[in-house]
């Protein structure tokens, strides 16, 4: 078992420059990965992440080698890193700012696809906002009790913000349009 550590995108860029074959995992959706990803990163989406099988694979091909985990901004990478840290003795690093910081701030080489895919974060904002508006409209037009639907979505957003986990995001990540 190891601890999860954090590394800045600039420090990660320096490591990647010296070791372009370092162990990197991208835990975003396949569609996000197809749109833009750090060159050489392995895709293991968080919604399908099996820490046990990843740990077995890492032990076989890169024992005791540091592992760098990325996502869009760092939240999903932290969740995957915590799961993985319980299974391996390697150092596990979450790249702060994720793929966005690597490509825009640190100048890490990225591969960009032709996909103009919408980010998971943006999809969650659209879905949550739509549910809140729907609940309010239904409470005005059908029954005032529908306001509790909007309150439920709002409470879920507060919970997601406090715990840095998002059930709606994990559900949306499993939708067919987020697969390549």
From TrEMBL:
InterPro entries: Rhodanese-like_dom, Rhodanese-like_dom_sf, YgaP-like_TM. Residues 18-111 form the Rhodanese domain. The chain crosses the membrane at residues 124-142, 148-173. Keywords: Membrane, Transmembrane, Transmembrane helix. SMART domains: RHOD. It holds the Pfam family YgaP-like_TM. This is Rhodanese-like domain-containing protein. It comes from Kordiimonas pumila.
